[in-house]
Design a protein that fits this description.
- The chain is α+β, with helices and mostly antiparallel strands and 300 residues long.
- It has a single domain, classed as Ribosomal Protein S5, domain 2 (2-Layer Sandwich).
- It has nine helices and 13 strands.
- Strands 1, 2, 3, 4, 5, 6, 7, 12 and 13 form a nine-stranded mixed β-sheet that branches. A four-stranded antiparallel β-sheet has the order 9-10-8-11.
- A hairpin with a 2-residue loop joins strand 3 and strand 4.
- The chain starts with a strand and ends with a strand.
- The model has no long low-confidence stretch (mean pLDDT 94).
Length: 300
C-alpha cells in the first residue's frame, strides 16, 4: 500500500547577514534580518514498499540524480540512517524560484524534505529535530547558514542568535504597513564560493553586526530597507543590474547572496511596478511574491 506525505517550506531572502562559524554545524549559522516568501518548495514522499532500497527523485516533474542535489541528498541519507531499514520510495519536489538567486531554495528544499521524511518514515522526531537535520545539511554543504531556521518560522525575522532550530534564536516582527515583495532575478551566484572569501567575510562580520544593532534600536520597515541598502553598499558585491534597481526604487535592496533584488510595494503598486521592471529588464525573471507568515509545515 502506497503512503504519501507532503510538506512545504517557504523560500527565504536574507538582506543582511553575519556568518557565525563554530566547530559544530548545529551552532553554526548567521545573525541578520530577512523575510520568508511564497512561492516556496513543495516536497512529496511516497513510500512504495519495504525490504529493498531504491529512490526515484523528481524535480519539477523531471527525473534527477539525487547526488546533484547535495543538501537535500544529505538530508535523505541522514534520515535513512535514523530509519535503519530498507525502503522503496519516490521523492517529488516542486520549486518555483531560480536556484542560486539567493532565495534559500536549497534550505527550503532540505527543510520540506526533512519534515516529509520524518512523517512518512514515522521517525518520531520533533519538528525542531527534523529541521535541525536540514540546517546541518546546509552547513555541511556550504549552501546556507540561516535560511532553515528562518523558513521554519516564516514572516519578517531577526536572527539574534546563530545556530539551527533549537540552538539559534529568531524573532518575528511585522511591518507597520502591508507590503509585498517583487523579486527580480538576473543570474546565479554560488553561495559556497562567496563564503570561502576570508577578507569579505571579515568585512561582512564587522559592519553587519553594527547595522544589526542599528536595526534593533528601531525595528520598522523604513529602517529594514535602510540598513539592508547600507549593508549592500558596504560589502561591495552589488551587481550592476541590482544597482540600477536600487537607484530607481527607494524600497529596494539586494538579495543576499545572489544577482537578484527585491522591491517592497503596496498592493496597488504591484502591477505598475512589474510593468516598469519588464520594460527595464526584458530578460530578467520577475516574480510577484508574498510574505509567508506561516512558515514550514507538513501538509498531509
Amino acid at each position: 500500500m502506497t503512503k504519501a506525505v507532503s510538506a512545504y517550506a517557504p523560500c527565504h531572502v536574507s538582506t543582511l547577514f553575519v556568518p557565525v562559524i563554530t566547530d559544530s554545524p548545529e551552532t553554526t549559522g548567521s545573525l541578520g534580518i530577512g523575510f520568508s516568501i511564497f512561492p516556496g518548495v513543495y516536497t512529496t514522499v511516497k513510500i512504495l514498499g519495504y525490504g529493498s532500497k531504491h529512490v526515484k527523485w523528481l524535480l519539477n516533474g523531471e527525473p534527477v540524480q539525487p547526488e546533484n542535489l547535495s543538501t537535500s541528498f544529505t538530508v535523505f541519507k541522514k534520515m535513512l540512517e535514523i530509519y535503519g531499514g530498507n525502503v522503496k520510495m519516490e521523492i517529488s519536489q516542486w520549486c518555483y524560484l531560480p536556484i542560486g538567486g539567493g532565495f534559500g531554495v536549497s534550505g527550503a528544499s532540505a527543510l520540506s524534505l526533512s519534515l516529509a521524511l520524518n512523517e512518512a518514515l514515522e521517525l518520531g522526531l520533533s519538528t525542531e529535530e527534523a529541521a535541525m537535520i536540514a540546517h546541518v545539511s546546509e552547513v555541511i554543504n556550504k549552501t546556507g547558514l540561516g535560511d532553515v531556521i528562518s523558513s521554519l518560522l516564516g514572516g519578517f525575522e531577526i536572527r539574534v542568535k546563530a545556530g539551527g532550530p533549537g540552538h539559534g534564536t529568531v524573532k518575528k516582527w511585522e511591518p507597520e504597513l502591508y507590503v509585498s515583495p517583487i523579486i527580480i532575478y538576473f543570474s546565479s551566484i554560488e553561495t559556497r564560493k562567496v563564503l570561502r572569501e576570508n577578507t569579505l567575510t571579515q568585512r561582512i562580520s564587522e559592519f553587519g553586526r553594527e547595522l544589526l544593532q542599528e536595526f534593533l534600536k528601531n525595528v520598522s520597515l523604513e529602517k529594514f530597507i535602510a540598513v539592508s541598502r547600507k549593508f549592500t553598499e558596504i560589502i561591495g558585491l552589488c551587481p550592476e543590474e541590482v544597482e540600477t534597481v536600487m537607484s530607481k526604487f527607494a524600497m529596494s535592496s539586494m538579495v543576499m547572496l545572489g544577482n537578484s533584488a527585491f522591491i517592497m510595494v503596496h498592493p496597488e503598486e504591484i502591477h505598475p511596478t512589474i510593468s516598469t521592471l519588464r520594460e527595464m529588464f526584458p530578460n530578467a525573471t520577475i516574480v510577484e511574491a508574498k510574505i509567508d507568515y506561516r512558515g514550514a509545515k507538513v501538509i498531509t
